[in-house]
Amino acid sequence: FLAATFLHSLFLPMPFLLLIFCSFATAFQEKISFKMIHTASFYNDSWVKIQNSAWLDDLQTHGWDTNSGRIIFLRPWSKGNLRKEEIKELEEFFRGFSVVMPQEIHKFASQWKFKYPFEIQVTLGCELNRGGAIVGFHQFAYQGSDLLYFQNNSWLPSAKGGTRAQDMSRLFNQNHAMKETVQRMLSDTCPRFLLSILDAGKADLQRQVKPEAWLSTGSNPGPDRQMLVCHVSGFHPKPIWVKWMRGEQVQQGTQQSDILPNADGTWYLQVFLDVEATETSGLYCRVRHSSLGGQDILLYLEHHQGSVGWIILAVMVSLVLLTALAFWLRKRCLFPHPP
Asked: So where does this one cross the membrane (predicted)?
């Protein structure tokens, strides 16, 4: 947090900032957040493994080289509008944070009943909401469970943090300089940097790639039942709507996998439907995505089953012809015609 003072005014002029603010509030129909994650794995009272990273929603934009203490910019636009000297100061901040935080945790580990080995997660960032407002957040967790969060210039214990969280919040709140720095980071620095990288990466972030979709069947979930699978891949941006339907009715029991990344930066999704084998008539998978211009993809199960039938028939005919050819060749070899 010590580096936040130099970050206060290093970003965009306010008129241009407001222009970008309005533009992205319209362009991104869903919430979008930027967060920095600090993870410290404490194996014993002398061995700590540090990991730092930064993310724009589910897209990692920055990494951290623990050996050199340098920020790794994972996208061409990850620097936003930062200058070289500003990047160096940020790296000094993260190096200091990665040294000071473990020392403090070691110091109070016994008092806070942290039992080795354990893991600490610190998240700091901000979120651009659909209405255009940017809200900062800062959380401190132990073993994956929230202990503290920052709100209205104060550290507050989480509801399930117990006496440990209450003791930690009292100690953290005594450091008024740190609280002011955190407040500045959340209300000024993070929003400016979020909008800065959104502007620098808008060509990549706002690109539209149409999905490809196809149907398959999974392993049968039970007697006289069938598992239908709708695959959707290669789409960007991430928000998508995929449902199994009959007529205009969404089918109950539709289950969706996590949306997973492809190597090219697009996304992949599977949507499942467990149905009675005799109740598949009229079912189809419907795909809605911003890249389709309002023209949904409709994949009808009857067409899929029909195409599978033709494939099976073609394979069977080919096998019969190959068998006949082999028999004919064998006969020619065993009983050749006389000269």
From this structure: 6-28, 308-329
What residues does 134 pair with on adjacent strands? 128
CATH architecture observed for domain 4-205: 2-Layer Sandwich (3.30)
CATH 3.20.20.80 fits 212-310, yes or no: no
C-alpha dist (Å) from residue 97 to 51, 103, 113, 172, 321 = 11, 10, 22, 15, 73
191 within 8 A of 11, measured Cβ to Cβ:
no
Compute φ and ψ for 248, nearest 5 degrees: -105, 10
Quote the Cα angle for 155-114-147, to 5°: 25
Cis peptide before 237 (omega within 30 of 0): yes
What residue type is 3 in one-letter code? A
Using DSSP's 3-state secondary structure scheme, residue 287 falls into strand
Query: How many Cβ atoms from other residues are within 10 Å of residue 122's Cβ?
Result: 17
Residues making up the chain, counted from first to last: 339
Domain ranges of the chain: 4-205, 212-310
pLDDT digits (tens, 9 = 90+) for 176-232: 988 988 898 899 888 888 999 999 999 988 899 999 999 998 877 778 889 999 999
Do 173 and 179 touch, CB atoms closer than 8 A?
Answer: yes
Say how many Å lie between the first and final Cα of the chain, rounded: 98
Residue 272 has, within 13 A of its CA and on its CB side, a CA count of 13
- In the chain, DSSP finds a helix count (H) and a strand count (E) of 8, 17
Q: What's the CA angle centered on 166, arms 161 and 169, to 5 degrees?
A: 110
Is 72 strand, coil or helix? Answer: strand
296 alpha-carbon distance from chain centroid: 24
**Element of type H or E holding 297:** strand 297-300
164 burial level (CB within 10 Å; 0-12, 13-18, 19+): middle
pLDDT digits (tens, 9 = 90+) for 91-134: 887 887 788 888 889 999 999 999 999 999 999 999 998 888 89
In degrees and rounded to multiples of 5, residue 285 shows phi and psi of -105, 130
- For the chain, the farthest-separated pair of C-alpha atoms sits apart, in whole angstroms, at 109
